[in-house]
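Why run this: before we spend reagent on co-expression, it is cheaper to look at a predicted model of the complex and decide which construct boundaries make sense. The entries below are exactly what would go into the expression plan.
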Amino acid sequence: MKRRFGNIIALCLAVALLYGMQHSKPHYMDLTGPIPVYGKMHETVRARLFNVTVDDVAFARELTVEGFGTSKTLTTSGVWVVVSAQLEATTASNVVAQASWVGPTGLQYDSSDRTGYVPGLPPHAIDPGLPKPARFVFETLPDQVSGATLILSNQLFPRLDSQVRIAIDRFKKFNDGQPLILDSFDIRRPMAVSGN
Amino acid sequence: MIVLIPLTLFETSYDSVRELLSGNDLWPKDVAAGETVRFGGSNWQFVSLKPVEVLKTASSLPSSSVPLTARFLVEIGNPDLQNLWLGCSIRLVDPVGRLWQPASIPGMPSVAEGIKSCGAAAFSGAQSGERMVIEESFLVPREVATEVRPTLGVGSERPSYLRFARPL
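The model came back. Tokens follow.
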């Protein structure tokens, strides 16, 4: 009887311990999630497999793109975001495939697929020693512009690998802090390069 | 416990370790210039790594880059290339270990008939005894163009891979 009682106590303690650990310790998906690398615009941010420098961010109501010899103009009820950056592989050729725009309230917008295949847009194949101009296009809401973060990674769902998170804080804005939104942006426009 | 814990660790990590070893070029085997090596069931000889001279539209290439083409001569041994050459990977490596994969280079002259990439050769249906030329093109920084050398990895030989010396 005493032994049985002891076993029940041990079982209850084990259940309580496991329950406590389940609620107090990080989950497996958190432990094996992306490894954030934080940075700012105009500085080189170094991930495991690539370096990135965000040179410019522009906002527009219309976006003009050209693919396979035909151009098209894309409208939006929100705002187009065009990020211009320099990418370079560190140790081996690879691809930067995933880009997201995370607004100040946490809303996340992945790269727009409305552009179709357009040279200079993701996925970006990059090589060591060969910096490459790259653009990322997002379609978001006007209230998701100020205080946003650009997220870049090699894979769609990085696990135990770098994920670059760049605070977007330097763009053309009015005195009241509202961003300057262009009537239209032509993706064929040459990119501004850091240092120029 | 002494038996169960190691057994559990082995069982849970076995697939991951096997995947790591079979999916990556980890252990190099150096090959002297001009030497022919049996690899993936066939005989491989690294012939040349040369800058590509003719480009129709080189304007879109970075000014600091050089397009290079690596050429191999292969005599097919075991014709089961689809299995033996699975995941065939020819890359360039520089002295500090940086790796370049084959690139699609705008303005490259079209390759001569019969010359194949490694991946295409694996599915070409080549028979035993057949000789073929395999080429891959790369874009590398100008400062390492004379220092890089090719490596070759195939699924049936991984994690070992070949690292070729450049012909003098």
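Chain B has a mean pLDDT of 91. The first helix of chain B runs from residue 4 to 23. Bring this page to Monday's planning discussion.
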